[in-house]
Specification:
- The chain has about 475 residues and is an alpha/beta fold.
- The protein folds into two domains: about 190 residues, P-loop containing nucleotide triphosphate hydrolases (Rossmann fold, 3-Layer(aba) Sandwich); about 240 residues, Nucleotidyltransferase, domain 5.
- It is about 35% helix and about 20% strand.
- Strands 3-4-5-2-6-7-1-8 form an eight-stranded mixed β-sheet.
- α12 packs across α14.
Length: about 475
């Protein structure tokens, strides 16, 4: 049997005390990612099934999804039952109930479409990943399950923003703690967990180096710091300073055998400045001239950002190269066929780009198709959606925070000025489904350079250098 750590035991004892004394308390538990909340939950379930073996009663656990979260919870409990000597004694019923004697553990999905009305929790009600559970779903269908039994309830999870169910329960618990002194909220960030697990310490420190301490995922999953739900600046002063480089802008390749990649934001595409921070999609900018057939958006520019992958500056842990922005190409009001002819020459013959990621949403699909046909597999057509744009946002922030992305030094150009204008005006908004959206409000300008930069980071991420073997060693071959 896996031995619980002190912080897990503290939570477990509080929950068992509430159950045994009929207190009916509601607890909120924040434990950093991979800190052992699922193990704590499984061992609590095992203990309660044993305690109520003869007396009987139901415990209920809800997870945001049936697959994989609910399924994983059931598998973990079955493993703990077998380890405790109950193999052949416990029974599985109806695919979502585990019975030991007269005691039963129910597992439900808290997905909005799930049908769970009617079950009663006599012993314990658990809400796993509570930050991802819909408030109305919980209030209408899960909370009433313990209304007639004064059931003890536990909300587990990690923080996200200040609008989640977990945050709401947490704030209520903290208020009650002030009134009666009974501890209801438990919070253990990564530093607390690392006290008992050196391997975990090493892992999280690598994640901190990869993402940066201010990265939304690191802040929420490991530091347990909630984000603000409203829009905030995408980059703070320190991040913008981190993005500034001292290298020169180039009109063509510099050193021999350098690797170049590119990101292309297509004018009039869905990734540009008209982005709706709520749903992650865009519409053409108000007042912009509609694009003619085969032409880029009238008020916006197609921006190509070309970056050099410098492996001599690769970090020691992740071996990622530093992306040095070397060139910007900006075109307005140019037809896709004409733009394709120019970019084909610039990307293949001038720069020899190994990977090119193109915004292929909306009218960008046409240019992306032209480039794929002429340049082959090195071109990736990138479809903007709420999820894919969120991925771009997180990867861009990780590259900036880790020092793996650098803008060329000032050259007095309009491109340089516009780039930094967009970086200054760029906003970031977080949604309750753990996605992020980044944009420049249309009233404050465009975000062509911003999106092109994010697509450049994606191109660098997707590029995989060939390897050549020399004297038994595997070496990069460009």
């Amino acid at each position: 049997m896996i031995e619980l750590r002190p912080y897990q035991l503290e939570i477990g004892r509080a929950v068992i005390d509430s159950i045994l004394h009929g207190r009916g308390l509601t607890f909120s538990v924040e434990i950093a990612r991979q800190g052992g909340k699922n193990e704590l939950s499984a061992q609590l379930e095992l203990l309660l099934l044993t305690m109520y073996f003869v007396r009987g009663g139901n415990s209920i656990k809800a997870s945001p999804t049936f697959k994989p979260q609910t399924v994983n919870s059931m598998l973990r409990l079955k493993e703990r039952l077998d380890e405790a000597g109950y193999r052949g004694i416990w029974k599985s019923e109806m695919g979502y109930i585990i019975r030991l004697g007269q005691a039963r553990q129910f597992f439900f999905s808290a997905d909005k479409s799930s049908n769970v009305v009617g079950a009663t929790a006599h012993i314990l009600l658990e809400i796993d990943e509570s930050q991802d559970v819909d408030k109305e779903k919980y209030s209408k269908e899960f909370k009433p399950m313990g209304a007639t039994t004064n059931v003890t309830t536990v909300h587990y999870g990690t923080t996200w923003d200040d609008t989640t169910l977990l945050e709401e329960v947490k704030q209520g618990n903290l208020e009650q703690e002030k009134r009666d002194g009974i501890k209801r909220h438990f919070r253990f960030d990564w530093q607390e967990i690392a006290r008992y697990n050196p391997d975990y310490l090493n892992y999280v420190e690598q994640e901190r180096a990869r993402l940066g301490e201010g990265h939304p995922l690191f802040r929420t999953q490991y530091a347990l710091q909630p984000l603000q739900g409203s829009s905030n600046s995408l980059l703070n002063a320190a991040q913008k300073n981190q993005l500034r480089g001292g290298h020169s802008r180039l009109a063509g390749p510099g050193r021999n055998k350098a690797v170049y990649v590119a990101g292309i934001d297509v004018a009039g595409g869905m990734g540009e400045g008209g982005t709706n921070p709520v749903n992650g999609f865009s519409s053409p900018r108000p007042g912009s001239r509609p694009a003619a057939a085969g032409e880029t958006g009238g008020g916006d520019a197609t921006v190509v950002t070309i970056g050099e992958l410098d492996y001599t500056l690769a970090d020691e842990v992740w071996k990622r190269p530093v992306i040095l922005v070397r060139e910007h190409i900006r075109r307005k009001g140019v037809s896709h066929p004409a733009l394709h002819r120019e970019l084909f020459t610039r990307l293949r013959n001038t720069w020899g780009c190994k990977k090119v990621v193109v915004d292929a949403t909306g009218i960008g699909w046409g240019l992306a198709g032209f480039l794929q046909e002429s340049l082959g597999s090195r071109v990736i057509a990138y479809q903007f959606s709420q999820k894919s744009k969120s991925t771009l946002c997180f990867e861009l922030l990780a590259a900036v925070n880790s020092g793996c992305l650098k803008m060329y030094a000032s050259d007095g150009s309009e491109e340089y000025s516009e780039f930094w204008h967009e970086m200054d005006k760029a906003q970031c908004a977080f949604s309750s489904n753990k996605t992020a959206n980044f944009f420049v409000e249309p009233s404050r300008g465009h975000d062509d350079f911003l999106m092109s930069l994010a697509l450049l980071v994606e191109a660098a991420r997707l590029y995989e250098p060939r390897t050549a073997t020399s004297r038994g060693a595997s070496l990069p071959s460009f």
